[in-house]
Amino acid sequence: MDALTDVLHALELKGWLHSRMEMILPWRFDFLTSPDSIFHLLSGGHGYLSVEGEAAPRRIGSGDVLLFPFGHAHSIGDEPSSPLTRTVHLAYSAHREYQVLPFEGEGPKMGILCGAFHFEHPNDYPFLQCLPKVIHIPGEQGRMAQSFAELVQMLARESGERLVGREVVLRRLTELLFIQVIRVWIEQQAETSTGWIAALRDQSISTALGLIHQSPDRGWKVEELAEAVALSRSAFSARFTRLVGEAPITYLTRWRMQRAKRLLKNDVKIQTIAPLVGYESEVAFRQAFKREVGISPARYRKLGEPVSTTWERA
Questions:
Q1: What pLDDT, in 10s, does the model give residues 11-40?
Q2: Which CATH architecture describes the domain 3-188?
Q3: Any idea where the HTH araC/xylS-type domain is (predicted)?
Q4: Second label for 11, Cα 20 to 30 Å away, from 103, 123, 247, 261?
């Protein structure tokens, strides 16, 4: 199994398109810090992006896609010094409908599609913690990946039409957008990148991650994983720990718990969950779950996450 596929599936990603805004010169939008990930799709013209904590603004243009994985505050305008047009707080809302905000006036216009991505427990996944504060996919680069370009065009087209079922289509397209942005961004990364993303690019460690995600119920030993990727035990353990941020068996245990949590939320019986996540008995599973999560499986099913059980950020 592709480990990234399994992680993206486990994220319980929810996408939402907030609005389409059309601006005429001069203009500037300030986006407040959000608890969710924020994204923008740009069309027509050029402008500047100023990100909280960055000294210099970035040049942006038509066709660009911007993703803020941690919801950092930022401004977008035709010039960094342009007067403030509007302050916007983008946060995922399952019930708020998509809106079009046109601005009257003469002259060239620039359009921005704005939306958000919501994850139930983002701190539980090392993959998310490896992302930068902003991912910028330039329009020219996005068009190099045909499926990515087609998705962006479809999202822009669907947002401009009032067809039956538009809200559902827009939500599904935004979820696909997140996945495609991540795929393109991973391809951008240099061979010298570090962390979980580097682990995906490392053939041996990526293969080991795939084995763990494919069969979390198997009683993996470090020796078996090392042999499967043709490395010595010590070399494999050291490389895995350096790239992923924790030892192979620690990662395996954490991933088993993540899978168990999803199954508990879906009301799967504990006696069914235990063998699916590698435990021979209910008792062994209950003990492991309480040790790792802090509460019993039954209490987790009833109350949910007690505190944020985070992975170390790479």
A1: 888 998 888 888 888 899 999 999 999 999
A2: Sandwich (2.60)
A3: 206-303
A4: 247
Angstrom CA distances, 163 to 14, 87, 112, 160, 170, stand at 21, 29, 20, 9, 11
Peptide bond into 26 cis (omega under 30): yes
Q: From start to end of the chain, where are the E strands?
A: 14-24, 28-31, 37-43, 46-51, 58-61, 65-68, 74-77, 86-88, 99-102, 109-118, 135-137
Report d(CA 248, CA 78) in Å as an integer: 48
Are 206 and 127 within 8 A, CB to CB?
A: no
Tell me whether the CATH fold assigned to 3-188 matches the one assigned to 197-303: no
51 to 31, 105, 313: CA distances (angstroms): 10, 28, 21
Residues with Cβ < 8 Å from 227, sequence gap 6 or more?
A: none
183-200: b (≥16 Cβ within 10 Å) or e = ebbeeeeeeebebbbbbb
Whether 314 has a pLDDT exceeding 80, the answer reads no
Q: Place 291 in a pLDDT band, splitting at 50, 70 and 90.
A: very high
Which two structure tokens, joined as six digits, stand for 273?
Answer: 């969950």
Helix (H) or strand (E) holding 127, with range, is helix 126-129
- DSSP code of 123? G
Q: Distance (Å, rounded) from C-alpha 117 to C-alpha 174?
A: 8
* CATH hierarchy code of domain 197-303: 1.10.10.60
Q: Check pLDDT > 80 for residue 205.
A: yes
The more confident residue out of 191 and 254 is: 254
Identify the residue with better confidence: 39 or 2.
39
User: What tokens appear for 146 in the block?
Assistant: 């045909």
Give the start-to-end residue ranges of the domains of the chain.
3-188, 197-303
Average pLDDT, the chain: 87
For 119, the token pair is 């994850």
Whole-number pLDDT of residue 256: 95
User: In the structure encoding, which two tokens stand for residue 161, read together?
Assistant: 């039409």
